[in-house]
Amino acid sequence: MAPQGKMNARQRAARQKRKMVLFAVEILIILIMIAVLYLVMNKSGEGPKVTYLDPDNLAIPSQVIESKEEGGKMHGYMNIALFGVDATSDKQLYKGSRSDSIMIANINMDTGDIKLVSIYRDTYLNIGDEFRKCNAAYSFGGAEQAVKMLNMNLDMDITNFVTVGYRGLSKVIDGLGGIYIDVDSEELKHINNYQISICEVLKCDYTPVTEAGYQLLNGLQATAYCRIRHTKGDDFQRAARQREVIQAIEEQAKKTDLVTLTNVFNDCIGDIYTSLDSNDILELLGNIANYRIVAEDGFPQPDMRGNANMGAKGACVIPTDLESNVVWLHQFLFGDDDYTVSDSVMEYNETIKADTTPFLKD
């Protein structure tokens, strides 16, 4: 007879229609560190699924373009959008799946400092032709529409992205020999149920996590850790766990030999869809030893967000003041203490307030 915990997890998985939460962000550091090794050592290999995004189609605000050209605060940075989609096939990597994990990796090309910002998937934003949860942009228009959504709402200049399917994370972590994570007592109550729901899809076995504390997690355990949302903080805390896993992967990867890193990339390469070609990656790798994650946070900020059930549009995270959130974002990423948002952001801010005020709780 199946344990009660297993039955509960199966019932939960059925209610969720087996929907997997996928995390592109957890393999970004690995991608950057070892893609060139793959290209050099396996020139005849298939490589990642690469596409090109035309900057003219990505809604980069003219104010941002002009500022960078004039040497403004955003000059000298590379921003990469990271998407984890609920895809169950290669086709859904391209379009038709929601980006349940959305991050911006901000890289200072002079210092190698990396900052990570989670854009909460339920955030109510302009996704191109309507306002709704921002994770719908990827489903409607793939990576191009999702990148466009980030640029137009946040005054960004993103032209590159990385998307992966759910198998990638587990493969990467197992290839590295696991990662070290501090699992607290509340997380311990849920991590094994999430392992069970993942195995329902992957048709695999799992090893239960039996105690709290700082410990080595395998790929499946770490993936389950990223999916936990039934603790204090819900989706906000889950996004923080995702960023924690990135940092743990970075630490483990820097301890790993080149042959092992190459093998890891070979194993997960079929799960990667990206705009980064060999020249992009070579540029990033020029000073890879100095790349380091120095800060991480989430958008919108706690004191500038609310929650509202928007009827047919569902339960949304509301940026109660989009302008202030965008000003904070530019200060956090670029050190710009005097940023003035674009006219578009001002317009979107007014629409968001008008749409959501009747639904917001006091």
Would you write up a description of this structure?
- The chain is of the alpha/beta class.
- The protein has a single domain, classed as Nucleotidyltransferase, domain 5.
- It contains 13 helices and 13 strands.
- The protein has helices at 4-15, 28-41, 62-69, 91-94, 136-154, 167-175, 185-202, 219-227, 234-253, 258-268, 278-285, 322-334, 343-356; strands at residues 49-50, 77-85, 99-108, 113-119, 124-126, 131-133, 160-164, 179-183, 213-217, 272-274, 292-299, 305-309, 315-319.
- Strands 1-10-7-2-3-4-11 form a seven-stranded mixed β-sheet, with helices on both faces. Strands 5-6 form a two-stranded antiparallel ribbon. Strands 8-9 form a two-stranded antiparallel ribbon.
- Strand 5 (124-126) and strand 6 (131-133) form a beta hairpin.
- Helix 6 crosses helix 8 (219-227) and helix 6 packs antiparallel against helix 10.
- The radius of gyration is 20 Å and the shape is globular.
- InterPro entries: LytR/CpsA/Psr_CW_biosynth, LytR_CpsA_psr.
- Belongs to the LytR/CpsA/Psr (LCP) family.
- The chain crosses the membrane at residues 21-41.
